[in-house]
């Protein structure tokens, strides 16, 4: 049986994913920005509600590229320790260099700081100039899993490259398919790619409250629908891969 990881950015979404049968949660803030480091309060609240659920905490201090300054890396490590103490079972992280490859020293430092907890390399690999070298470097850094869409906007489009990644990685590291997965395409992606782990938000749009939303507070439109994980969508995704 294949496993499903669901990314969430609220207690509501975490509970819905768990009820739908998710095998593991990636906990973030601001999924609309691709996922940023969650707050300590969010991890703590999810841990209280779901004491037996595996929680992988995102380590990403800002949106944009994955080339981090010394100061940003210090923040990342401090967040790691605090999130671990709050109940995280592992972490999701990736840092790149200016040449388009993994920043090996920085990645090693974060993996080492995890104290043996599993660390997933996130979709930074999808913008690396050489994914084969990136896989080799990820193994050297100590990552246990790589999340990828096969260097395409969605895993459905990148299923062929994901298959090559799985074959290249062998038993050295897990390749997890993610990016635009739905109940309609998840089975196809799993069969084509050979990935044993699949990743998605299993979300639906919920209209934002009209109360007090008169103008945006920042670059995002405050009137945009809110994406929340849906129990039925999670269940359908899990069922679609249950016999593979």
UniProtKB/TrEMBL annotation:
One of its GO terms (molecular function) is copper ion binding. Gene3D superfamilies: Copper homeostasis (CutC) domain. InterPro entries: CutC-like (IPR005627), CutC-like_dom_sf (IPR036822). Pfam families: CutC. SUPFAM superfamilies: CutC-like (SSF110395). It comes from the Eukaryota. Belongs to the CutC family. This is Copper homeostasis protein cutC homolog. It comes from Diploscapter pachys.
